[in-house]
Design brief:
By secondary structure, the protein is mainly alpha-helical. The chain is built from seven helices and three strands.
Amino acid sequence: MSIEARIPEAWRHPAFHDMRRRIETLEEENRQLRDLMKPAVVFPLAWGLTRREADLLAIVYGGQGCVRWAVIRAMFFELGDDRSKDVITVFLSKARPKLKAQGVTIETRHGVGLMLPAESRSIIDGALSAMAGRGG
């Protein structure tokens, strides 16, 4: 049997190729929007956060109030990635002791998402201001 004969008829239709190009375009637009939405925050190196831990903190810090799990997942993973919030929870559990040493806590609102208490937000604001005062 030839390769041509094994390809489903629908895949040979021009509309299939148009839809595939459209999907690729939308996936790229999504990636760019995620990059734009992710707050560009650089936390002090002394905090010892990995890139993913810092990304997670930046998402929660950039949100107002409670940041929903769906938003965190959308900003953290590629479209179509089926990883659950358990992966994010692993990053969170590794970041929490590092942040606690700085007086920062991230609260979990079970079934809803994550949030920074006002005191933690103030500590981060102060650390970022101090970094800016030193020129980065």
